[in-house]
Amino acid sequence: MAFTLLSRSPRLVICALLCIFLFSEVGVPRRASALGINYGQVGNNLPSPPHVVQLLTSLRIGKVRIYDVNPQVLSAFAGTGIELIVTVPDDLVPGMAASASQALQWVTAGVRPYFPATRVTGIAVGNEVFTGDDEQLKASLVPAMRNLHAALAQLGMDTYVRVSTANSLAVLATSYPPSQGVFTQDAAPYMAQLLRFLADTSTPFWINAYPYFAYKDDPTKVSLDYALSNPYHVGAVDPYTHLQYTSMLYAQVDAVTFAAARLGYGNVPVHVSETGWPSKGDANEAGATVENARQYNRNLLMRQVSGEGTPLRPKLRLEVYLFALFNEDMKPGPTSERNYGLYQPDMSMVYNVGLNQLSTTSAASLSLATSPATRTVRC
C-alpha cells in the first residue's frame, strides 16, 4: 500500500518514514543472495559465453545482468540456475509502447525460447532514459513496460519475470542528506508513473549509483573513505534522521527511497542495478586506481556477505549488481569507461576482491564488521 505524506510538515514526514522503515520490513522479503554482476559485451576480445558462464559458476555468482537478448549468451546460461536480467534497447521502446503486439513479439522471440531453462528473472527496459534528452522516449517508457508485463502475463511468465528500468542517480535533484532526497521537477511526473507500475507489479526500483563520480568531481571536499564505503571512519550523519552513514552508496540508495516516499511509494524497494569503480583513468579522473577499485568492490562485497542493509532499511540486505565483469575495450568515452572490469578479457583478474574466496570459504569467515546504524528516532 502506498502512503502519501506531502501535506504534512517535513519534520513529520521524516519521522513517519523512519518509524515505517526502521521497525518494519515494508513488505519486502529478505533475499538469500543479493550480489550480482553486470556482464557487458562492448569489446572485440571477450571470452565466449560458455567460458564466461564457467567463470561465474566457479565464483558462485548467482545474478547477472546483460544489455541485450544475445541468443548465444541466453543459451550458455541454460541449466545453471543463475538469475539473468535481460535488456530492451532504447530504440525499441517507442514501438513497444505503441503496439502491444510488438512487445509480445519481442518476448516470444527473445526470451520465451530459452525460458525456463535459462532463468530469466527480469527485463530492463531502456537504460537511464529519464535523464536523457529524448522526450518521446521518456513518454514511451512506462507504456512499453506495461505492454511487456502484459505480454509476460499472456505467456504465463509474469510470476517469474519482472519488468523495470535502470535509472541514473541524476533523477534526484537532492541526494544529501538522504532524508531530503527528492526527484527533479523534470523527472517527477515520470517517476510517479514508474513507481505506480512498480508498486502494482511488486517490482523494485533500479538505480545506477556511482560514488566514484562524486569523488572525481570534487576530490578535495568528498571524503575518499566515505566514497569507498570504508567501514572504519566517522562517515556522515543525516541531521534530520540522525542515521549514520559510512557508505556513500548506501546514502544514495536511501535518498532514492525518501524521494519515492515523497511521491507516495516508500514501499517500493530500491536495488542497485550498477555500481563500480574504475581501475584506470585519464589524468583528470581523480581516484581511478587499481587500489581504490579493489577497495570499493571489496568493501561492497563484505557488506553483502554480512547481510547489511542501508541505515534506513537495516533488516533488508541491499541487492547490488557490480559493474562490471570485464574491461570492455570498445566502450567510448574517457579511459575509465574501459576499465571497470574485475577481470581482463583473458579472464585474469584485474585485482582480487575476494570473489574467488567465496567459492571455498564460509560467509561468516569473510564477514567484515561495520559501524552499526544509529536507530534513535528523535522528532
UniProtKB/TrEMBL annotation:
Keyword field: Glycosidase, Hydrolase, Signal
InterPro entries this protein is in? Answer: GH (IPR017853), Glyco_hydro_17 (IPR000490), Glyco_hydro_17_plant (IPR044965)
Q: What is its EC number?
A: 3.2.1.39
Specify the domain of life of the species encoding this protein. Eukaryota
Q: Can the keyword Oxidoreductase be found in this entry's annotation?
A: no
A GO biological process this protein is involved in? carbohydrate metabolic process
Q: Indicate the enzyme's highest-level EC class.
A: hydrolase
| Catalytic activity annotation | Hydrolysis of (1->3)-beta-D-glucosidic linkages in (1->3)-beta-D-glucans
User: Mind telling me which SUPFAM superfamilies this protein's record contains?
Assistant: (Trans)glycosidases
Note the Pfam families from the entry: Glyco_hydro_17
| One MF term in the entry's GO annotations | glucan endo-1,3-beta-D-glucosidase activity
Tell me the protein family, please.
Answer: Belongs to the glycosyl hydrolase 17 family.
The name under which this protein is listed is glucan endo-1,3-beta-D-glucosidase
Q: Species name for this entry?
A: Setaria viridis (Green bristlegrass)
Q: What is the lineage of its organism?
A: Eukaryota, Viridiplantae, Streptophyta, Embryophyta, Tracheophyta
